[in-house]
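Can't paste images in this forum, so I'm doing it all in text. The chain is below; anyone willing to post the predicted structure tokens underneath?
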Amino acid sequence: MGMSEFYGTGDDRESIATIHRALELGVTFLDTADMYGSGANEELVGRAIHGRRDSVFLATKFGIVRGDDPTARRIDGSAAYVRAACDASLKRLGVETIDLYYQHRVDANTPIEETVGAMAELVRAGKVRHIGLSEASAATIRRAAAVHAIAAVQSEYSLFSRDIEDTGVISTLRELGIALVAYSPIGRGLLSGTIRRVDDLAAGDFRRSSPRFADGNFAHNAAAVDRVQAVAAEVGVTPAQLALAWVLAQGDDIVPIPGTKRVRYLEENAAAAEIQLTPLELTRLADAVPKGSAAGERYGDMSFVNR
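Text version of the structure:
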């Protein structure tokens, strides 16, 4: 996402080099969406994987519709939109098949059965291999799985964001054999320890308006990051690597997708896969960032998540 929008200015050459380096390191699961850069991110990924398609497990999403106003959003899960969105994504990506196709957000005005039914048609047509949901509630996941097998559910999950542990989402996924794809596993960069002031963020960075970066909340959350940094120093890794290692330690069925647009951070993130945290280190982290201790909501408007 950050390669095309939301996290300041991007550099397509550096972004493509980052994707290529990821593939060299064996990081082959690439996640995009049609709303990132209003289609520009899919086109970027398409250029990056041209000639390398067989080395990539490609995921994209549909459902968040944008118009001329860059701040306006609406959700569309209608069957007609599912089909049209998929065809548009395939064209932008320059591929014949999407490996994992997610509904980006659940449409409160369209039964999940209709949406997943249309996605199942895409599987039968050979346009999609597997289907998934994003930010869905446990009840919605069950209804969706009754229509067609759900391979993965994408939700925010990190030391700072653990609500899905208490809402029945993780337990439902494990009961049904569905993977969890954890986005923002480094707390939108906050857990990296590199953001010391909100003014460190670029002028166009969306985090400037995020509740967790707001006055008061930021100072509270930064104090928790300081505690994470202390544990990281003892373990001998960076705070970002420690945050990723924590997510990986929660189960083999959980796949974190840290975003970056620079090779050096990609390499740092990838190295986290080799870190094996001890029970004591996990306890130290739990004490450093107790569940539910983050100040501020994940989004300014939470009405579009956990439906």
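The chain is about 35% helix and 15% strand. The first strand starts at residue 29 and ends at 31.
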